Amino acid sequence: MAMKLQIKKKNILRGLTIGLVIALAVDALYMSGAFETLELKTFDLRTRIIRKDMKAHDDIALVLIDEASLKSTNSTLGRWPWPRWIYGDLLEYFAMGGAKTIAFDIIFPEYEDAMKSGDTIGANDELLVEGTAMAGNVFHAAQIIVDVEDELNKSLLNKPLPQDFIEAFSVKTFEKKSLKISPYNNFYLPFRELYEVSRGVGVVEFADDSDGIYRKTKLFRQYQGDFFPVLSMAILMDELKPEKISKEKGKLVMSDLEIPLLDDGQYLINMYKNFNTYSISGILSSIQKIQQGELENLMVDPAEFENKIVIIGASATGVEDLKPTAMGKRMPGVMLHASLVSNVLKRDFLRVIHQTQTRLIIYSGTLFLGLLILTFRRILFQIAFPIGAAIGYIAVSFWGFRGNLVLDLIPPMVSILGVWIGSFTYLYFSEGKDKRKARKMLGQYVSPAVLNDLIEQEGAFIKAEVGAKERLTILFSDIRGFTSLSEHLKAEQVVELLNIYLSKMVDIIFANRGTLDKFIGDAVMAFWGAPIRVDDHAKRCVKAGLEMARSMQGLNREFVEKGFPELRVGIGVHTGEVILGNIGSEKKLDYTIIGDHVNLTSRLEGLTKPYGCDMLISESTYMELNGEFPCRVVDNVRVKGKEEPIKVYSVLALDSDPKEELERKRKMARFFNTAFNHYINRDFVAAMEMYTKASGFLKSDKVSELFIQRCRNCIEQPPPDDWDGVFTMATK
């Protein structure tokens, strides 16, 4: 009994020790910001799940310039941006409907015809000014930003705001308790005549978080000692008319209203996805009917906006105001402003627990779990406690979010995982039989490889990137005319032929340390430079491509012996930046590359047939070779679907070829490159002579034949003065 008590005390001490060590480690990571990005992702997940059906305040009406609006008005208003008289009509329409407030998430910083008429206001701008003045309740947009100094804008930075703008729109009720130096050094205001008749002006600039997502904002911007509200706050101050505004610890106080703030003084926006939303195209159609005297059967009755806060913004891709937010990847930026307004009107504020509270959860949770795992000897309990704690805390965090309480999710979860791994690692190394039991039990939940990492290396894990931009060299090969060839073979013969061919090609790719991407029928796609980064990926790829082409001679002998037809291949090689990662679904992922340069490589492979070359490489790949392989210029081509031409080359030899052969191919490359330069420089006679000479010492050179015919055509009918020598392919 005494021994059991002693063992129990030791286990309690060891459990508390493991818990404390894990808590200290997680706490250090937490305070260093290591979990910030992942924590933000969990915040976004909770937002999308919990708030997907939440509706914004009914008094808010969003008027969006959407794709349908741009298309429907293209013939009448022209391309974006629209002439400003249209906004004057909008203001008159909303005033007719009795809108309480009208706000633009569109900035008008200069005259519409500034490039043509200089400092003179035009008729369209006058109509916008008149509409703003007549309505009397219009809020316009401004920007106060941090600009990077350069030679062009040096004299424009840190200029004072116009005094009349400060007098009209700075916040006089803001208590300046501790005025910090403002980082803002530049601004864009509505043109003077417009802001002079505006009810208010609000700042519309937002800053994204470290992961590029927009979640929060400063409610006021300080510029040279004066404070100006963001657009949402400008609307709300006019609505609430607070007697004073003060910033206190963790909150902004507006009379009797308290708005919670984060530790950095910013406001965390509680996003909505569902608003009273109107397409501006329907409103413009209604305005047109009203102007024609038709007041019935309007698409959008102006009375729908009675006593509404109307916020006008854009959701069309071409207007470039789509932002990634916690609610979605491509949300109209105006929804950030509208959500903030709705938060205040509904008192729908998120409250984030302080770091001290999160740290208390980490320490108390890990100590308690370490104690439980080491005290309860039954393996079922030792596994169930951490799983139960994790599920319970996740449930609490989601339940709290439903009540607008934001708990940190990742640090406590990491601490639970850490104490679980730490405890079982201790048990594994400290006890023989129990160690094997623990391994057997955990083996039912994780793979043997993961189990070894967890047991043998405390805290070990594999970090897999879901996507990254990388500069790689891509190879695309295809069998020419394989479809027609396969029609004359039996199904089993087609499979046997392909297996022989693809096995050889893959062996060459692997021998040159390439990565096989996929088979596409008889086509092979591979790339070099990932997952192992190498500087000479272009050279490795070109070497593999030429070896693949050369191997066809031996393969064809084997095919003839088996009664199969001989094969010809086309190979395209190109170097460029692609997106690399595990792409697919939860059930099937491929480690692959995508992007425009992949498509271009496929186009290069398609060019091998008209030029009669087994392999073609792009100029970007050629530049990577640094002259180590002799290459001839084949042509300057504009492939189908591309505007910019590319110069394509044929590789004549490898640096590993015999020295005499290598030198001969270098001379040949110089000869062809000189001929091509004559052609580009419009010396068609000299070019034709050289290509004719080349066709004499080269057996069946289709490139020479093509250029002889081109030169003959250009001599007979000289090209125009703007001729650039680029040949445009009409097909893929």
What keyword list fits this structure?
alpha/beta; nine-stranded mixed beta sheet; seven-stranded mixed beta sheet; 25 helices; disordered N terminus
What does this structure look like?
It is a single chain. The chain has 732 residues and is α/β, with parallel strands linked by helices. The strands form seven sheets. Strands 20, 21, 22, 23, 24, 25, 26, 27 and 28 form a nine-stranded mixed β-sheet that branches. Strands 1, 2, 3, 5, 6, 14 and 15 form a seven-stranded mixed β-sheet that branches. Strands 4-10-11-12 form a four-stranded mixed β-sheet, with no helix packed on it. Helix 15 packs across helix 16 (432-442) and helix 23 packs antiparallel against helix 24. It is globular. The termini are far apart. Mean pLDDT is 84; it is low at 1-7 and 437-465.
Q: Low-confidence stretches at least 5 residues in length (pLDDT < 50)?
A: 1-7, 437-465
Q: DSSP helix count?
A: 25
What would the average pLDDT be, to the nearest integer? 84
Largest sheet, if any?
Answer: 9 strands, mixed
How much of the sequence lies in strands comes to 15-25%
**What's the gyration radius in Å?**
35 Å
Question: Which secondary-structure class do the elements indicate?
Answer: alpha/beta
Distance between the termini: 85 Å
Number of strands: 28
Given the C-alpha coordinates, what overall shape results? globular
Share of helix among residues? 40-55%
